[in-house]
Every structure is written in C-alpha cells, then in structure tokens.
Amino acid sequence: MARVPSPEPHSPAGEDSGSWRHPSLLVGLVGTGIQASRTPALHEREGAMQGLRYVYKLIDLEALGLDAGALPEILTAAQRFGFAGLNITHPCKQAVIPLLDELSPDAEALGAVNTVVLKDGRRTGHNTDWWGFAESFRRELEDVRRDRVVQFGAGGAGAAVAHALLTLGTGEVVIIDTDEARSRDLAAALCERFGKGRASSGSSPEEALSSADGMVNTTPLGMAKYPGMAIPPDLLRSDLWIADIVYFPLETELLRQARIRGCRTMSGGGMAVFQAIGAFQHFTGLEANTERMLRHFSEM
C-alpha cells in the first residue's frame, strides 16, 4: 500500500529521553462488544517502540448503551478532545461514511471505512481491511486453489474481503448474506470493478459450497458476543480451505469444526495485525515494524 510521508512533529529523533518529552498521540476504536479487542495493546506497544506516548482508547457502544446513531457525537467529541484518529469496526464501517469530509480511493471504492484520520479539522476515511486480509492470505494460503470462493457476509468487512479475494486472483466470489439485496448490490459493484462474472450473490450455502474451493466468514458470527457459525458444520469437507476474519477468539467454532474435518484454515489474527499496521501508518505517519507487530500479537 502507499506509504504516508512522516510528519515532522511525530519524529522522535532528537527528543529528550524523558517520556514527557516524547510526541504524544491519542486514538480510539469505535464499535460494539469490543472489550476483548487486542488492537489497543498492539498499537500502544508499537508506538512505544517508536518513541511515542501512544494512548489507544476503546469506545464500546454496547458498554456505553449507544448504537451507531451516536457516531456524529462521537466524531465531534474525538475532534474536540484532540484524537488523531479512530478505528471503526462492526457495526459502523458503512454508517460512518456520510459523516466524513473525504474518502481515500480504496474506501470510496469499497463503500466501507475502518480508519478515520482527524487532522486540521477534517475527517478522512481509509480502508486498511482489504489490504490486511490480502497480506494475511498471501502468508498463510498463497498456494490454495481459488477458482470459486464462497463468502458469507456483505457488510463493510465483507466488501473489503471480497475486493481482496478478487485482487488476489480469485476467479469468482459467491456472496451470501441474510440481506439478499445487500449481497446482490455488493456483487454488482465488484463486477463493475473487476469484470462481468467475477462476483455473484447466492442464497443456498449447500449449493454454493458444493463446487467451491474455499470459504470465508466475514460475519460477526464466531465472536464472543455472537457465538455460532454461518453454516451447519456438516457442509464442511476436507478439500475446502476455510478463513475467518473474527480474531477474538482466534479459534472460532467454524475454524474448530473445519480443523476437525481436515480443512486448511486461516484465522482472523493476521488480518487484524495487517489492518492495524496500515492504520498505525495513517495515524502516525510512521512505518510500523511488521514482524514486531506480528510477534506482539502472538504474545498477547
């Protein structure tokens, strides 16, 4: 992904060794049921390693008794309190868009935002999710067949993952969502970007998976707050590879059942780290140390 120039105020070079003299940064994560998120520690540890006083706050809508309708107030408050930016997760990745001044090309194309930079009174939306999934996939499942992949979920994360799958050379992505209109709209948008026939919407998991090489879950199902699976376990078979973007817990019920049946699997941990690497860069103007952040994540 494109590198963001490093702004002078964030460079720790030449600063006094006392921590009170180090550049400071305040950022946050907005979403529902996010108390188990590892993102704050991941950002703060990398920030500290780069000489920043980096503070990352959780803004958990559930804990606050709020919903996505509170986003306008949250963004205004974040600007007033000097936040450098916000990460955005379920269920706000699409709802936040009308509240922003500008979108990066990726965020505009995907219609989903997971990173908002607050600078000079402006709100700029970015999407590092698709790149995060793609980088994780390249590391863990680069050699698998992907002529036809079934994806469950057509929300903000689903839009990013489907974009990544097609960028990685997947022949066709079949999208299944409880909201069939949403899956049709996403498939149409993907075909417009990648070409006719590259994406389609489906309604029958049995039919779609019968001729698939792999499956990705981009729904919240499997999270601690949303236990369960997007499909019955008897639809899994050993020649399918299975990816899940949920990372708390790292082993979702879907991945557990898939491993029992001999499937190759990919957890959401890699995507979580790589999207954080992209967000860290947008917030700080500094390039994160990839191997260090992967190591930090594995130690948590």
Supply database-style keywords.
single chain; 300 residues; alpha/beta; Rossmann fold; 2 domains; 6-stranded mixed sheet; 6-stranded parallel sheet; 12 strands; 19% strand; disordered N terminus
What is this structure's SSE topology?
Blueprint: E1 24-31, H1 39-49, E2 53-60, H2 61-64, H3 71-80, E3 85-88, E4 102-103, H4 105-110, E5 115-119, E6 122-126, H5 129-140, E7 148-152, H6 156-167, E8 172-176, H7 180-194, E9 199-201, H8 205-210, E10 214-217, E11 241-244, H9 253-260, E12 264-266, H10 269-284, H11 290-299
Parallel strand pairs: 1-2, 1-3, 4-6, 7-8, 7-10, 8-9, 10-11, 11-12
Antiparallel strand pairs: 3-5, 5-6
Helix pairs in contact: 1-10, 1-11, 5-6, 5-10, 10-11
Overall radius of gyration: 19 Å
Q: Report the biggest beta sheet as strand number plus sense, adding barrel if it closes.
A: 6 strands, mixed
Level-1 CATH class name of the largest domain: Alpha Beta
**What CATH architecture label of the largest domain applies?**
3-Layer(aba) Sandwich
CATH superfamily of the largest domain, by name, is Leucine Dehydrogenase, chain A, domain 1
- Summed up, the helix count is 11
Structural class by SSE content? alpha/beta
Our measurement of the CA-to-CA distance between the termini, rounded to an integer number of angstroms, reads: 26 Å
The structural domain count equals: 2
Sheet with most strands: strand arrangement: 2-1-3-5-6-4
Order of helices and strands: EHEHHEEHEEHEHEHEHEEHEHH
CATH fold group of the largest domain: Rossmann fold
